[in-house]
Design goal:
Number of helices: 16
Structural class: alpha/beta
CATH topology of the largest domain: Rossmann fold
CATH class of the largest domain: Alpha Beta
Distance between the termini: 30 Å
CATH architecture of the largest domain: 3-Layer(aba) Sandwich
Largest sheet: 6 strands, parallel
Strand order of the largest sheet: 3-2-1-4-5-6
Number of domains: 2
Length: 394
């Protein structure tokens, strides 16, 4: 059955070849897929190395990591180290709009699949190469997972204490930044192609993408303790409160309204940010004691009524059931083989009020190899059998 794309799928009809693994590349192509592009994930015969921990083995459900990154795409196997497999990829390139890869710089060239070769087969193709430090330069060949990139860019200064560097942020922000910029760059290049008829090659590094984020943040420490606190209320509920700038006077008034804390708002130790930092232990002790006198819901209601930035602390697995996200339609049901499989995140964007609500489960290794080759290239059973016999399809 053919599904007619709606307004929430503006990339419907665009085809993307995905040669990526781990996080930055799959997240970039996932964004393109949620916008309606047909994404085909091409894996070696051994499969994407992150499949091993995904649960996508017989009898096991997919992990949340794999489910988040690899939904809404088809998957095929090609051995790009074989001449036959390489040639199949080049034939697919002739029918593709974009190709995204995040190999270490030089791998595609060694496979004789550099951007000049790919665009020689399809001048309209947009290619995007994502790497840790960029496609050239003295650091281009270094192993560049997220932690070293965070250290290199200076992010650890923000997580440190007393002038000492801290540990990496416990989420792969360099990979996520790279994915964000990669998806944006591919979209921009496709738009430019519609005007010029020519594709483009995009080369971006996780380090430079993360630096773009770090260049526009507040480095003054205004979000550090005690300006930001997680507080426990009388019923055990936890709230994050951020009474920065002019919000602090409103926050102090709420604390001073608690019996026994009437002097809080006038205490000179807590008057300005520098004073609060100098007397941080006393300030935090007073605030924590005040918050333990009332339930979390009561505090949250008063904080919101006063306009003080605050939120309940949720577990990420539970937040989809929150009334705000339910109202927004931020989750959808993924179905597999006609049976409900799991509730998953919907795409974060709406178009004229419409959000894409259909999604498909991550494919198994090589699940769509034959179907893609039939659909894109018109291969018949004889051609498929010949490719299988020579090892092109693993």
């Amino acid at each position: 059955m053919t599904v007619t794309p709606g307004p929430a799928e503006p990339l419907a009809g665009f085809r993307v070849l995905d040669l990526t693994t781990f996080l930055s590349g799959p997240l970039a192509t996932r964004t393109l897929a949620t916008l309606g592009a047909e994404v085909v994930k091409i894996e070696p015969p051994s499969g994407d190395p992150t499949r091993a921990g995904s649960g996508l083995r017989p009898g096991g459900p997919p992990s949340p990591y794999w489910l988040a990154l690899h939904r809404d795409r088809r998957a095929m196997v090609l051995d790009l180290k074989s001449e036959a497999g390489r040639e199949v990829l080049l034939e697919l390139v002739e029918h593709a709009d974009a190709l995204v890869e995040n190999f270490r710089p030089g791998v595609m060239a060694r496979l004789d699949l550099g951007p000049e070769v790919l665009r020689g087969r399809n001048p309209r193709l947009v290619t995007c190469a994502i790497s840790g430090f960029g496609g050239d330069g003295p650091m281009s060949q270094l192993a560049a997972i997220d932690g070293p990139v965070q250290a290199f860019t200076g992010l650890l200064d923000l997580t440190g204490v007393d002038g000492q560097p801290g540990l990496p942020v416990p989420m792969q922000v360099a990979d996520i930044a790279g994915a964000s910029y990669a998806a944006s760059a591919v979209l921009a290049a496709l738009l430019a192609r519609e005007r010029t008829g020519q594709g483009a090659h995009i080369d971006l590094s996780l380090a430079e993408c993360l630096l773009q984020w770090l260049g526009c943040i507040d480095r003054s420490g205004s979000l550090n303790h005690p300006s930001t606190m997680v507080l426990e209320a009388a019923d055990g509920g936890r709230l994050l409160v951020q009474p920065i700038m002019h919000f602090h006077a409103r926050f102090a008034a709420l604390v001073a309204a608690v019996p026994g804390f009437e002097a809080f708002a006038e205490d000179p130790r807590f008057g300005d940010r520098d004073a609060r930092r100098a007397h941080r232990a006393d300030y935090e002790d007073a605030v924590r004691a005040a918050f333990r006198t009332r339930p979390a819901a009561d505090w949250l209601a008063d904080l919101h009524a006063s306009g003080v930035p605050a939120a309940a602390v949720h577990a990420s697995d539970d937040v989809l059931s929150h009334p705000q996200l339910v109202h927004r339609g931020a989750s959808i049901v993924m179905e597999g083989d006609g049976q409900v499989t799991q509730t998953v995140l919907a795409p974060p964007f709406t178009f004229d009020g419409e959000r894409r609500v259909r999604t498909s489960a991550p494919p198994t290794l090589g699940e769509h190899t034959a179907a893609v080759l039939r659909d894109w290239l018109g291969y018949d059973d004889e051609r498929l059998a010949a490719l299988g016999a020579c090892g092109a399809l693993g």
